[in-house]
Design a protein that fits this description.
alpha+beta, Immunoglobulin-like, four-stranded antiparallel β-sheet, 489 residues, five-stranded antiparallel β-sheet, 16% helix
């Protein structure tokens, strides 16, 4: 592991903990305009391995007359004896953090980027108030698990006490994507992250016991007592159902569980005339692009909305799997509602549906819901060239933070499809209890802005969803820079 040289002692009551720190009491020598040399005040220990990788980080902060401050840090990696190129151990790169955070910084903004974080957040550093390590690989996993930590769910908050006794409570953190999506932070090409290691594993699985008897409140490890740091014996980095990469891939994305995939495709939308019932021809495929019978589905609906210049109306045809008729190796259905009187422009027609599929080693352990995506097709009312909606928010930008955008049970996944129901006239009136006040708008643009602004709003929206479930965005903490419109747009 990383070893730091500049340390301090931090106390809380009678508890004393060692922490890595920085220094600013060395000698700063001007070399040229804007160029300086710094000589450390501390002395290196005698046992320094000069053939090993080292890193030096410098952090600076500037205060302005208006009270604002700006900080930045920089680092250099080197091998003191020059015998080799440094092997940099950064498995969570700054650019991946910035997909959500749009600027990684800590401790007042002076330290920026993962390279600076890793330099002090090593196994050497502990919070004396809570006893929690601030080792980067443990602390970061636990922060991002937040409310999902077994210890938090059992009633123990996850806190770090910082400078001047400031309490940082991460117990209500909800990651905007599955916490098991390791590649979101580590990337696909990193070799180290799939290697199961005790400290990293138990950062998230913090109430799993590897000893017997299990401590109170702990769950025994599935495979029983195991030596610490022997995780990789049963959880290798690839190739088996129990590999670290595979078990974190998610049930429905796991090829070892036998799911073959599901995909919908819209072939054609016809008879799009005012007062007429449009006809939709479509296909249902498995993961190998083999056509499937529509009656294999447990739910399928088609939504039509318009105009694409600014959605103002929508209609849905449900239980399509029961009413569709064969059309070659595909299917055909007439929608339940006509194009409304006075409608002009173009319409969007989208699909959503799923099937329940048994999964597990014997395909009988449980049942998962597999969705077929949300294809959207466009058609001009009265014929002619259809006009798709202007693209203000792309799927890729949503997925940069959310991984795979999904809502309403996981089978609404596409931004354009969301807008067909979340249109200018949409409200939660059909879901809101009579005694819960006036209906709230579910118009996509304003709703999404207000959800992401959550904690900053005086009157955050409470929107009622399926089953009368209230969704209160007042505690949503956006991890990026809220006025950075380009993050989404």
């Amino acid at each position: 592991g990383i070893r730091g040289y500049i340390t301090r002692e931090a106390t809380a009551g009678d508890v004393v903990a060692t922490q890595l720190t920085s220094e600013s009491n060395g000698t700063l020598t001007p070399m040229a305009f804007g160029e300086y040399s710094y000589t450390f005040n501390f002395t290196l220990p005698d046992d320094v391995d000069r053939a090993m990788w080292h890193r030096v980080v410098i952090g600076a902060r500037r205060s302005f007359d208006d009270g604002s401050r700006a900080g930045v840090s920089a680092s250099v990696d080197f091998v003191p004896d020059g015998s080799a190129e440094p092997v940099v151990p950064d498995t969570a790169m700054t650019d991946r953090c910035n997909q959500c955070h749009q600027g990684v910084e800590g401790h007042g903004g002076r330290w920026t980027g993962v390279d600076a974080c890793l330099t002090c957040h090593t196994p050497q550093t502990t919070d004396p108030d809570t006893g929690n390590t601030v080792d980067f690989r443990v602390m970061l996993h636990r922060i991002h698990m937040g409310a999902g930590l077994p210890s938090v769910q059992a009633g123990t908050p996850y806190q770090i006490i910082g400078n001047r006794g400031s309490v940082h409570d991460f117990s209500e953190i909800h990651l905007p994507r599955p916490a098991s999506d390791c590649q979101a932070c580590h990337g696909e090409d990193v070799d180290e992250w799939p290697d199961a290691q005790y400290d990293a594993c138990t950062a998230c699985h913090d109430r799993t016991a590897f000893t017997a008897p299990s401590p109170a409140g702990f769950t025994p490890h599935t495979a029983g007592v195991r030596p610490l740091n022997s995780c990789a014996g049963c959880h290798p980095n690839a190739g088996t159902p129990t590999s670290a990469a595979q078990t974190h891939a998610g049930v429905l994305a796991d090829p070892f569980l036998g799911l073959v995939g599901l995909r919908f495709a819209i072939d054609q939308v016809t008879n799009v005339e005012v007062g007429q019932l449009p006809v939709v021809t479509f296909h249902v495929f498995d993961g190998d692009d083999h056509p499937l019978p529509v009656d294999r589905l447990d739910s399928l609906e088609i939504t039509m909305a318009g105009p694409t210049s600014g959605f103002a109306w929508a209609s849905s045809t449900r239980n399509v799997q029961q009413g569709a008729q064969p059309a070659g190796d595909g299917w055909r259905i007439q929608l339940a509602e006509p194009v409304p009187d006075g409608a002009t422009g173009s319409v969007a027609v989208g699909m959503a549906g799923y099937r329940y599929v048994p999964y597990g080693a014997a395909r009988a352990e449980s049942v998962g819901r597999e969705n077929g995506g949300n294809p959207v097709a466009y058609a001009a009312i009265g014929g002619g060239q259809a006009t798709p909606p202007a693209t203000e928010v792309t799927q890729a930008k949503c997925n940069a933070c959310h991984g795979e955008l999904e809502a309403h049970g996981g089978f609404r996944t596409q931004v354009v499809y969301c807008q067909t129901c979340h249109n200018a006239t949409g409200t939660d009136a059909a879901r809101r209890p009579p005694d819960a006040g006036e209906p709230a708008s579910i118009f996509f643009g304003p709703m999404v802005h207000r959800i992401h602004a959550g904690e900053h709003l005086e009157n955050p929206p409470v929107i009622y969803g399926f089953g009368g479930t209230p969704h209160d965005s007042g505690e949503v903490v956006y991890p990026g820079v809220l006025n950075n419109c380009a993050a989404c747009h």
